[in-house]
Write a structure and sequence with these properties.
Oligomer: single chain
Radius of gyration: 38 Å
Shape: rod-shaped
Distance between the termini: 94 Å
Structural class: mainly alpha
Largest sheet: none
Order of helices and strands: HHHHHHHH
Strand content: under 5%
Number of helices: 8
Number of strands: 0
Length: about 200
């Protein structure tokens, strides 16, 4: 079972089927399909009701639809076990998605997520989980920004306070001065005398 087995529209899988709804489905199935052996519904009803314990309304109706589309592969009335198995098949993609969401939440949880939070990580609904992850990503970016703007080691950046006081003109002047020193250093290494031109000008 994969995501492709999920319906296009998100059904309400949280609503439990009532006893009345269970009996309605069983009555329809018994009216359509013959039993493998003659049986009194009053005798087999407890077994079917046990098999349908805790099932959801949508899963029950969807299992009935699939049985009518030959999901069981035989023309007889589904036994209690077969009916419950078909309902479990209907719910398996949803349970698998919930298991994956829980595993992702556990694997990528930050250490502080173990602490009680006002908005715990949601489970089950992909849209809600996506919004929650977007909020957590924004919180991580904010934490990274705070870390980047944290005070630095004064031993490594002793002139940081002075640098903050510099104006744009100071920055431009400093850049020109550094470039001039760098160019003079490169020329000196190449063996060229910077004063040759200057001496010629003085001679003229």
């Amino acid at each position: 079972m994969t995501e492709s087995n999920l319906p296009a529209a998100q059904p309400d899988i949280s609503r439990s089927a009532t006893d009345t709804e269970k009996l309605v489905v069983l009555t329809r199935l018994f009216a359509v399909y013959p039993c493998r052996a003659p049986s009194d519904f009053r005798l087999v009803r407890p077994a079917y009701m046990q098999a349908l314990e805790g099932v959801g309304q949508w899963a029950l109706f969807e299992a009935e639809r699939r049985i009518n589309q030959n999901a069981l592969g035989h023309p007889f009335m589904a036994t209690p076990a077969e009916l419950r198995r078909e309902i479990d098949r209907v719910m398996e993609p949803f349970r698998e998605r919930q298991r994956r969401a829980a595993e992702e939440e556990r694997r990528y949880r930050w250490p502080e997520d173990n602490k009680p939070r006002a908005l715990p990580a949601p489970k089950g609904n992909p849209e809600v989980i996506a919004r929650w992850r977007a909020r957590r990503a924004a919180e991580k970016e904010e934490a990274a920004l705070k870390m980047a703007s944290a005070p630095t080691d004064p031993a490594l950046f002793a002139d940081r306070k002075e640098r903050k006081k510099r104006t744009s003109a100071d920055a431009v002047s400093g850049f020109i001065s550094r470039e001039d020193r760098r160019s003079r250093t490169d020329v000196t290494k190449s063996g060229v005398n910077l004063d040759v031109g200057k001496q010629g000008e003085d001679h003229d």
